[in-house]
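Two proteins follow. First one:
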Amino acid sequence: MKNQVVVIIQARMKSERLPEKVFKKVIDKPLLYYLIERIRKCKMVDNIIIATTNNIEDDKIVDFCKNHKISYYRGSENNVLLRFKKAALKYNADTIVRICADSPLVDFRIIDDFICDFKKNKNKIDYLTNSIKQSYPLGMNVEVFSLESLIISEKKSKSKFEKEHVTPYIKDSKNNFRIKSKDYVENLFHIRLTVDEECDFDLIKNIIENLYPKNNDFSLEEILFYLNKNKNLLNLNEGIKQKHLEHYL
């Protein structure tokens, strides 16, 4: 099938700060399961691909994909941009949505909204994101771009940084891609809903344990409501949050 909207999730077992984090369990399910379950609720997505590496330790991710009937692609560990391009071409993607596996609570409603906006403006924009002017909580990042933009980017990217992080070449204004940035209704970039260290996992675990049993498709707004009622939870990853903010200043 051609002209598909494809979510590509980059995932691997290796992590310097929190090894095998995608398989850390909450209520007997790995974080990767929750991410896939949430994205499968998208109405605008035709396929989900997990793009992992050729490393032997990532056989576990491939086994997970096979057991849960998820498409997957294996490629270079360090050239993630090339891995993305080859995954997109293999599965006939026309529009690509980039999601990281360390964002298990990304709201499928945001993904659908971004895809809808991208499709409506496809003749005007090449890349739509909320990751340039950061106002969404970290962990709700969504990037939508065309296959053509991905192919051009992979062909022209030269630096290690561009190849490791997929979209820096597209984001660079001198490369003349038509970019649209979407902001949240308020600046909540200080809220960290991604999993990079153990303290991040503690927060995500608490959210899932308290929201998931009542409603397995809880929204970003429901997460924020819960955190507002339990403000002390934001202290769990306060230290790493400060390092993260300093990185972007």
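Second one, unrelated to the first:
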Amino acid sequence: MKTPVRYTLWIPSLGSLLLLLAGCNDPDPETPPQLSLHFNEEFTIGFVTDSVEEFQLSHPSELRTDAEGHILIADQQSMDIKVFNAEGEFLHAFGGSGEGPGESRTITSMEINNQNELVIYDGMNARFTRFSTTADLLSVDPANGDLSVAPHHFQQIDGGEYLFLRKLRDTGAAATAEEQEIYSSVLHLHDETLLNRLQSFGNSTSLMESDADFVQHYAGLNPGHFWPAANGDIWYVPGIYNGRLFRFKKSSDRWEKSAEIEGNRVQSDAVDIDSNDDGAIQIMVYAPRQETYIGIVNSESLGVFTLADDRLIHFSAQLDGSERRLQIEVFNTNGELVGVARLDAFTYDATDNRASVMSIWKDKEDRFYLIDRREEPIVRVGKLEGL
């Protein structure tokens, strides 16, 4: 039996790095229709066989496309942003590792806003940096106070506000109603400056169907995925996919859960808590006291998206025997599951406890960008044929 991978966390204060996982739910007794989908790969970015290394990807982590169709990829090793045109041809790179203006120590998340600016959140420097997509430095803004929610992912939504995705670790010290709201939630609405929190919503225990310590701690690493619907609503799926997808709607200036739909999960349990078998993840926490939690993720969300016609698409990695398979669920505009498909070309070993293939982004033309780290790290760009 292989030794479980260990994630060691030092958490001396609010808002430090942690990890997430979700609970279980009885699977749908009916097998959904099998769809015949194919990922039509148009090109790849990041691996070349000649001596040109300038635009190779060492550790791609975040990806966005701008209004002109440029592809911007954050590389966590070189700590820069590499820019490609819509055909995947390298244009330029900017940024770099450090603490100076325009530099980053870690690119935790990024977004292209409605002014076509690139906004980066640098977790280790605890600040937001804005660039034009031609690499001009526009501003550097420190995060706002101890209760600021450092985003794991964020997007600008209707009205210009930003929605942050992050599950902070609750040490039990929350005293005020505001603190309790922050620590219990995974979605956090911020104003146009990104610095002022307006509301936190999406109770993690309810959405993940579990208050297990392993589940809640793992949420700091993978809180899940969200995507804005055409009508301004928000779709959300927990990182550990328990077969449920959630829709949130703004009502009377407050965001609330408005719908819950059923998807498809291969395993009966989304996570095996306390399992020490191959592929286990071990979480070690040192504050306020030393504790260890262990488990295996059987079902992991890789991304949720709406197509141009408002159909819903969900990618997940599902443990199936000795392999983890990439599953795609297709829902109609009423939220009903139409069918599922497996992309067998994207399978990887069951003992890999973190997803080796990540569905990371979709542009306005319904083109998908998948980060593939199974061998040389590359980005695969293409469309789903058969929808």
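SUMMARY FIELD: The radius of gyration is 20 Å. The domain at 5-385 is CATH 2.120.10.30 (Neuraminidase).
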